[in-house]
Amino acid sequence: MNHAWTYVRLAAVSVFWGASFNAGELAIQAMPPLTVTAWRFLIAAALMLLLLFVKEKPSWSTLRSSIWVYILLGVVGVFVTNALQFTALKFTSPLHPALIMATNPIVTAFLAVPLLKENIRKGQIIGMLCSIAGVLMVITNGAFWQLTNISLGDFIALGANIT
């Protein structure tokens, strides 16, 4: 595969992911957050199932053996996260949830320690602290002492990040 095409696709993913917060803000002006979440979930699920059946052609026995795991992962990992993300947008600007969600690799790294027995190196911890400091800098407008003034939307976005 052409490496340039790979980079174009990676850039497109970044653009679409970043734009989803602004698009979400527009969507919740027209519908409640849970309705936006439900539509997003249904459209994405239909597209994913279509891709699955066209590209992989799984057998029903294979699907049946893991269907409840897939449903649980979809509900918790996608629906709940998006519901919290869209709800957060009712209380804060799209920039804040976008930045908070960008710290998701930090949450993943910390969960990997007890669950996968991973080790976090000193350099990784320094990078994580810099990332958290940057997010706090933006959501407090540079006034770290105003951490008590963080909006409800920021806390909801943090909950979305943890799910």
Automatic annotation (TrEMBL):
**How does this chain sit within the bilayer?**
Multi-pass membrane protein
Q: What is this protein called?
A: EamA domain-containing protein
Give the subcellular location: Cell membrane
Q: Which family does it belong to?
A: Belongs to the EamA transporter family.
Q: Which residues cross the membrane?
A: 36-55, 67-89, 95-113, 125-145
The EamA domain is annotated at: 10-139
Q: Which InterPro entries match?
A: AA-Vitamin_Transporters (IPR050638), EamA_dom (IPR000620), EmrE-like (IPR037185)
Pfam families named among the record's database cross-references: EamA
